[in-house]
Amino acid sequence: MMSAPPAPAQPPPPAARETTATPRTSSTSSDVAAAKPTSVAAPRKQTRKPKPSRTKASAKRSTTFWRSFKYLLDLTPKQVDDFMASYVIYNLDWADEVGMRATLGETYAEKVGDCLRAYYGVLNHLCALGEVEKMYIPPLMDPGNLSVTENQLLYEESIANDLGLKKGDCVLDLGCGRGRVAAHVAQVSEARVTGLNIDPDQVQQAREFDEERGIGNEFVVRDMNALPLPFEDSSMDGFYEIQALSLCRDIPALFAEIHRILRPGARLSLLDWVRLPAYDPSNEKHAELMRRTKPLIGAVGTPSPKELEAALRKAGFVVERSDNASVGGLQAPLIEEADGWFRGLRKVVGGLVRCRVLPAHLKTLVDRLCLDGQAFVEMDRGGLVSTSWRIVARRA
Q1: Where in this chain does the record put each Methyltransferase type domain (predicted)?
Q2: How many Cα neighbours within 13 Å face the side chain of 278?
């Protein structure tokens, strides 16, 4: 076994970085007006609770780094090949069934599931080498703090508040990853979270993380596209998901299923990837940016906020809030923060591979991860897409 390199130095603190949020400049006034959030009812009043200790819900970063680093070192050639091949699905879109069938065959839905397992089985460990162990760039909740982790925690605390969770409530986390978000939501609300994820590796890590800390959450291996979900009618007091809906083949059917398992009056919270009104698919520049950004963030579908709202209403929900959760509507400062970290890691890994200290497949993986971060930044600053669109709705 080759010796592992030291962990790269952490990026400088936010005060030392030059990245700042700037107004969007590429959207026309009509684009900005079209992208304004909609709200059917006033947002729920924010009641600030005493901030709990986050120790139990947070992994020690060095421990997580080294566990994932070792896992990546030991990947087989097949695992690496399957991960790289899985990116084919991000050149497709659920809305283009003809393209899906032409590329993946008649059983394209099952093929997408296979690709997702191969993709996330490796990606979750790559993300754990940096500040996106939870595999999402959060909304910019605090413009004075460009820490990805701190903004994640702030957003997760807002989920518990928006859902009105209380001690003993049961809440479903769709696309739960390694269970870190579920741990934090459970800690701040004293609710019990059930996490669902397609990747057995992530679910196993979530269970281990939960058991080590005695949190009491549960985790289920399940494809969200395999309906019905394994829960009783009206069995959940809340539901949330973070940037998972682009992987859903039939969003209206999924929302109808969520409506079934939520009790009357319960709320759901969505934070997701959306295309905004300023995005024009006939614009070659826009289309090229979309082609580059989708693989970076792992998006198959490209829904709009209005499409999500319409699907929720059709399923029987009352949409109470639909807006961009980022202050000023921009995630770009946090995207650049995360991108800068991984570009630094890329240089370290590349140098160690050239010196034959690390196996070549690590460079292949990190190079793939670092592609096209600036395309995502450009789309965000241009108001073309966002991964911080928030919707809160109530089951009627």
Answers
A1: 172-268
A2: 22
Distance, in Å, from the CA atom of 191 to the CA atom of 18, rounded to the nearest integer, reads 40
Let me know if residue 18 belongs to a domain: no
- pLDDT tens digits, one per residue of 154-179: 999 999 999 999 999 999 999 999 99
Provide the pLDDT confidence category of residue 54 given band limits of 50, 70 and 90: low
Q: Which two tokens stand for residue 145?
A: 């703090």
The domain in which residue 290 lies consists of: 54-395
pLDDT per residue over 239-249, tens digit each?
999 999 999 99
Instruction: Report if residue 8 sits inside a domain.
Output: no
Assign residue 360 the CATH number of its domain.
Answer: 3.40.50.150
From the list 111, 130, 145, 161, the residue with the least C-alpha distance to 64 is 130
Three-class DSSP category at 322: strand
Tell me, yes or no, whether 36 lies in a domain.
no
Cα 29 to Cα 375: distance, rounded to the nearest angstrom: 22
Which residues have a Cβ under 8 Å from the Cβ of 228 and sit 6 or more positions away? 257, 260
Q: Six-digit token pair at 201? A: 């590796």
pTM for this prediction: 0.85
Structural domain contains residue 43:
no
DSSP string covering 316-378, please? TEEEEEEEE-SGGG--HHHHHHHHHHHHHHHHHHHHHHHTTSS-HHHHHHHHHHTTTHHHHHH
